[in-house]
Amino acid sequence: MLLLTDTQPQDSKVEPANSAQKKLLHHRFINLNWLRERFNHLRIGQKISYGYALAIGIAILGTGAGLKVGDYFRKQALIQVNVAQQQQQLLQNLQNSIFEARSHAARFPAVLGNTVWLQYEHDRFVQQINQAKILIAELQVFAIENPDWLARQEKDLQSILPRYAMVIDYYDRLTKLQLKEAEVWHLEANRIESAQLQLLRNRSGEEAIVLDTLSDHLTQLIATVEIQKLQGVEALEEAESLRNRIILGSMVISGLLAVLLADKTSRAIAQPLESVTNVAQQVARESNFNLQVPVTTEDEIGVLAASFNELIQRVSDYTQELKETQSQLIQTEKMSSLGQMVAGIAHEINNPVNFIGGNIDHANRYIQDLADLVALYQAYYPNPPDEIKDCIEDIELDFLSKDLPKTLASMKMGADRIREIVVSMRNFSRLDDGYMKPADIHEGIDSTLIILNHRLKQGIEVIKEYANLPPVECYGAQLNQVFMNVLGNAIDALEELKKADRAFSPTIWICTEVTADNAITVKIRDNGPGITAATAQQIFDPFFTTKSIGKGTGLGLAISYQIVAKHQGKIEMNSQIGDGTEFVITLPVAA
């Protein structure tokens, strides 16, 4: 009884499994037979048309899917890059405001006793503190609006930002309390020095450490956002690669399918024709009118086979009625006609720039004050001791007095130019609200060359052939960005060639002229290696670059193209391998 009880369930389990497999195989067999039957009912033209339609459809669907998938991931990557850029800008602005606030607070001891200056530094300090608080609020709103695209998770950012606000508020209140305790607003002359010492001790105390920690944390957060932005750029390249792979795969599959369908269709056509031909030859050879061609399809060949069978049957009937000679003649004539009939039928950056720029003016003023003081000393003490004379000669005081303001002016120009480039990059993503103003194009080119001077001094000669140009109504900062991008690319190309050939003499020619149609032309040419025709066709495409990873984003010339188009002008490139590259920028004089 126990053995029966054990074996019966095992048998009952095996039988349903076998039954299910048989049902599945039977179902597949029925479906396969149904497909074959439907295929056999099609006419030859339909078989060919449906086959190629299927292959082309797969190619189109694959291409469409590739474009759609690639565009989707590209859109996601663009969102990631844009959000990272906005977040980075907000964080950098916050860090700059903190730097500015601390800078103004650090100058409190130096301006004690000068009520006007102290009030100015105090007002600027309060302004930067308030700006920092506004930026924190904007960051909180930004985190809420873009929770899925942040470099840090929203809850982490939302927990960090209130701490930032508390640190800034603590620094603000502590600074104001120190000013109040020192009674800086009603400070007597004999108490200035002690108040300065008190403020200096406070400036290097706890609040300085807190603010340094906040600044370091912001730097780390900005670096994290920069990594996210670079990942977004890489995702753009991966999306383009994925789209190309899908399109290529669909084309390969459709090509293979077309080959398979062509083979299947040719077999479906050739095999019945071969059967008809064999039977016809056998009938003609053996005079056996009992032979029949198998009819396996309902297309033109099936009709031909059926007609041929009917013809054989009729010949057989006629043979029974006529004499043997007559039957042979009829058979010969029929086979001849049949042979003729069969024969006829078978044929797809910038963090510290604001801090530096904001302090250059103060540094310039301080240095000028010191220079004036030295001049006064020289006026009242024209015969200083020998040690002072020796020091004056060693430091070349006269040269230093003349060259130092020039150096500061150059630094100021560089900082201002970088600010203008950042503003132009921001304006590139939206309509410019400013106004066009008359500008000196030569001045813009020269200022760009000054900024690039540290790279030009490596042995690159610049030859300028300037015509007498009228002022051009334009967005001057944006055109300077165009000159920066074009000249920067020329320098990159020349540096690479210089590394390979030390005897090479790199040169850049800048030529300007006025054209007959009230426009001006700027030509920037180099004697670099040049580029291929295939590369030239994509040179203004966004994110296209021939530089190695980390050296170029592929946005410089795309942005330049947009800027020139915004001025109703045009930018063209002429280049040949071995003959260098020339960019021709044409701009209307009047807007």
Short description:
With 591 residues, the protein is of the alpha+beta class. Helices cover 72% and strands 7% of the residues. Residues 1-15, 323-349 and 427-432 have low confidence and may be disordered.
Keywords, separated by commas or semicolons:
5-stranded mixed sheet; Heat Shock Protein 90; 591 residues; disordered N terminus
Which percent bin holds the helix content? Answer: over 70%
Assigned CATH architecture of the domain at 432-588: 2-Layer Sandwich
Unreliable runs, pLDDT <50, ≥5 residues? 1-15, 323-349, 427-432
| Helix-strand pattern | HHHHHHHHHHHHEHHEEHEEHHEE
In percent terms, what proportion of residues is strand? 5-15%
Class based on secondary structure composition and strand pairing: alpha+beta
Say what the CATH topology of the domain at 432-588 is.
Heat Shock Protein 90
General form: elongated
Question: What is the CATH H-level superfamily of the domain at 432-588?
Answer: Histidine kinase-like ATPase, C-terminal domain
Task: Please tell me about this protein's structure.
The chain is of the alpha+beta class. Among the domains are: 38 residues; 82 residues; 157 residues, 2-Layer Sandwich (Heat Shock Protein 90). The strands form two sheets. It has a five-stranded mixed β-sheet. It has a two-stranded antiparallel ribbon with strand order 1-3. The longest helix is centred in the middle third of the chain and has 81 residues.
